[in-house]
Amino acid sequence: MVMEHGTDKTGPARDDVMKRLLRGELTAERSLRANEEHELQPAGEDQPVAAWSPESRFRGGTPSGMTEQDVGLRSELAQHLGRSLYPADKNTIIETLRRNNAPDQLVRMAERLPAHERFGNVQSIAEAVGIHTEQRRA
């Protein structure tokens, strides 16, 4: 390649060095983006509040012993708590819900949990706060 102030020779060795440098920069940039915390964001003030429509039917099927509202609450609770939390105590559950911008209703429910109990999954939390759960077959 000819430049204004002289000749700059390139070859396979220099190409390899440039590729490694570029690859390193791209990998570092990707890692930074991947490490950014992806927090759940609350709905904006101008957004409608989602609610069950009295005319609609829950399409996923409602397990025996549960209402559509029970299914929705348990699902929302699971969404805001994630999978890597367990086993967890009351304070950890409340902190996680707040950090993930859970609705106040879920935080209030978690505040009713027994103080010295550890919960192994969403099902045990749902049962402890009074959300109806599936009736198990005998």
Overall description:
This protein has helices spanning 12-35, 68-81, 90-99, 104-111, 122-129, and strands at 2-3, 6-7, 88-89, 118-119. The strands form two sheets. A two-stranded antiparallel ribbon has the order 1-2. Helix 3 (90-99) runs antiparallel to helix 4 (104-111). The mean pLDDT is 76. The protein is elongated and about 75 Å long. It has five helices and four strands. The N and C termini lie far apart (81 Å). With 138 residues, the protein is mainly alpha-helical. Strand 1 (2-3) and strand 2 (6-7) form a beta hairpin.
Give the helices and strands, then pairings:
Layout: E1 2-3, E2 6-7, H1 12-35, H2 68-81, E3 88-89, H3 90-99, H4 104-111, E4 118-119, H5 122-129
Antiparallel strand pairs: 1-2, 3-4
Helix pairs in contact: 3-4
Descriptive keywords:
mainly alpha, 138 residues, 4 strands
Order of helices and strands: EEHHEHHEH
- Span between termini: 81 Å
Tell me the fraction of residues in β-strands, as a range.
Answer: 5-15%
Q: Determine the number of helices (DSSP H or I, runs of at least 4 residues).
A: 5
Unreliable sequence segments:
none
Radius of gyration: 26 Å
What coarse outline follows from CA principal-axis ratios? elongated
Strand order of the largest sheet: 1-2
**Largest beta-sheet characterization:** 2 strands, antiparallel
Measured as a percent range, the helix fraction is 40-55%
What is the average per-residue confidence, as pLDDT, rounded to a whole number?
A: 76
Please give the number of β-strands: 4
| Helix vs. strand class | mainly alpha
